[in-house]
Design brief:
The chain is α/β, with parallel strands linked by helices and 511 residues long. The chain folds into three domains: 105 residues, Rossmann fold, CATH 3.40.50.720; 221 residues, Mur-like, catalytic domain (UDP-N-acetylmuramoyl-L-alanine:D-glutamate ligase); 141 residues, Mur ligase, C-terminal domain (Protein-Tyrosine Phosphatase, Chain A). Helices cover 34% and strands 19% of the residues. It has a nine-stranded mixed β-sheet, sandwiched between helices. A six-stranded mixed β-sheet has the order 15-16-20-17-18-19, sandwiched between helices. The protein has a five-stranded parallel β-sheet with strand order 3-2-1-4-5, with helices on both faces. Helix 6 crosses helix 13, helix 10 packs across helix 11 and helix 16 packs across helix 17. The C terminus is likely disordered.
């Protein structure tokens, strides 16, 4: 069996290497395509695959075998590359562990072959329970607005391997990393990434069904800091992120830089009154601060809520660490716009605001969304991923005017309300067909809401029990709202509602 650990360059000898690729989604195909281009013998396996994907594998010279027909002993792989999210108990992974066959994720493979086009791009790595996607988009937009060739890749939807092979190349790859991807990333050796700068935005219970414990989940997140060269950016309102920095082995000279909504000290970014300021990346940081923007300017860009300001501060720290000027940061922020399904105002009618935060796929993200509004009719429920929603219900019951519970398994949500907020009116949506869920939920929520309320669809749960993904869930919510209001959109204020800025800003509805 070949020593695969020695394969640390695109230009190494990959020819004939027997590789099993587990999964045929976007990531799995990018892995198979890359390995086939390198000359490896590629066998892709998955529980199901569309005819189109199977045909694409034939075109690139890879083979597909359904999991039920897979014969690992005959193929005798020298390497397994696993797509994010496969359970650790999957037969292919247990087989590899028992025989000492290396298992990589797509990120490790991408780091090893990042030199295809010569000098590789710098990486900025971002993770956290929430805020990843918005922060990665912010960083990418800021770098591009300063004239750099940057790409948002990884868990955001564009495989890193596709960017590695893009003919024009990039100056910087801004890599969103999920805990699934981080689980498979080594901390040392040729497959360990060494980003220019890195960030863990926050830590809250999520994906415990995969990791087994909060400690294991946090440990996976902390891997992003290892080997960082310039700056480890952490959230000073979330002590767990600071400890992850302290535990990481980094390059000499790498700095720990915090962000938060309070007044920053030297080596921090934060808020002074209405000003967003940097006290980290200036020589006179013990006496002075640099103004990056104002809260008013962020409001014009839709970034004024506490969790969005926190994302801005994290992104600013990352781009300042790689040399962007304060003037460039300010100019870039002025032209940024938040993606869909992230605390997105869908419509306003009769003083009721309708908000889509379908990206709030866990309680931590929903917490940030709920904090943004004073009086809420909450559409909640879905796949809870082993997380207890009860603390969230208890924390926000005073602002809830009603709750509409969706999802196949609604019982944990209903029980949480019964224990902690029995006074809050609650109605379950028992529609089982995907087409009927959102129209029913919207009609109920509309009946509960009155002037001054926000109908907030922030489910605190994943979507795949009833929808394709969070975007499908959000799109269906928006269509149902339009139908419920007779096709009307914002016929009152463009961005109505009064955000409650008393929140900590440590979470986010994004990422």
């Amino acid at each position: 069996m070949r020593d695969v650990d020695s394969l640390a360059s695109w230009h190494a000898d990959w020819k004939g290497l027997r590789v099993v690729v587990l999964g045929l989604g976007v990531t799995g195909f990018s892995v198979a395509d890359t390995l086939a281009e390198l000359g490896a013998a590629v066998l892709v396996t998955a529980a199901k695959a569309t005819p189109e994907r199977r045909q694409m594998l034939e075109v690139i010279g890879a083979e597909f075998v359904d999991e039920s027909s897979l014969d690992l002993e005959t193929f005798d792989p020298e390497l397994v590359v696993v797509s994010p999210g496969y359970p650790l108990t999957h037969p292919v992974l247990t087989w590899a562990a028992a025989r000492g066959v290396p298992v990589w994720g797509d990120i490790e493979l991408a780091w090893r072959v990042r030199d295809k086009l010569g000098d590789p791009a710098d990486w900025i790595a971002v993770t956290g329970t929430n805020g990843k996607t918005t922060t990665v988009q912010l960083v990418t937009h800021l770098l591009e607005s300063a004239g750099l060739r940057a790409a948002a890749v990884g868990n955001i939807g564009v495989p890193v391997l596709d960017a590695i092979r893009y003919p024009a190349g990039f100056d910087v790859l801004v890599v969103e990393l999920s805990s699934f991807q981080l689980h498979w990333m080594p901390r040392t050796g040729p497959g360990a990434i060494a980003p220019a700068s890195s960030a863990v935005l926050n830590i809250a219970d999520d994906h415990l069904d995969f990791h087994g414990s909060r400690e294991a989940y946090a440990e996976a997140k902390g891997t992003v800091y290892w080997n960082t060269r310039l700056a480890c950016v952490y959230n000073r309102a979330d002590e767990a992120t600071m400890h992850l920095v302290e535990e990481a082995e980094v390059h000499e000279g790498c700095r720990a830089v915090s962000f938060g909504l309070d007044t920053p000290g030297p080596s921090d970014l934060g808020m002074v009154g209405d000003l967003v300021v940097d006290r980290a990346f200036l020589d006179s940081r013990h006496k002075e601060a640099l103004e990056l923007t104002t809260h008013g300017e962020l409001a014009e860009a839709g970034l004024a809520s506490p969790h969005m300001v926190a994302n801005v501060l994290a992104a600013a720290a990352l781009v300042r660490s790689v040399g962007m000027t304060p003037e460039s940061v300010r100019a870039g922020l002025a032209t940024f716009r938040v993606d869909h399904h992230r605390t997105e105002v869908i419509a306003t009618r009769d003083g009721v605001v309708w908000v889509d935060d379908s990206k709030a796929t866990n309680p931590h993200a929903a917490d940030a969304a709920l904090r943004s509004f004073a009086s809420v009719v909450w559409i909640v429920g879905g796949l809870l991923k082993g997380v207890d929603i009860a603390p969230l219900v208890l924390q926000h019951k005073s602002r809830l005017r009603g709750a509409v519970v969706i999802g196949v398994n609604r019982l944990p949500v209903v029980e949480a309300f019964a224990r902690h907020a029995p006074e809050v009116p609650l109605i379950e949506v028992d529609a089982t067909d995907t087409d009927g869920v959102m129209p029913h939920a919207v009609r109920i929520a509309g009946g509960m809401a009155s002037q001054g309320d926000t109908v907030l669809m922030a489910p605190a749960a994943a979507s795949m029990d009833q929808f394709i993904d969070y975007a499908d869930r959000g799109d269906r919510f928006a269509r149902a709202v339009a139908e419920h209001l007779g096709g009307a959109g914002d016929d009152d204020d463009a961005h109505p509602g009064t955000p409650d800025t008393g929140g900590t800003g440590t979470g986010s509805s994004a990422g």
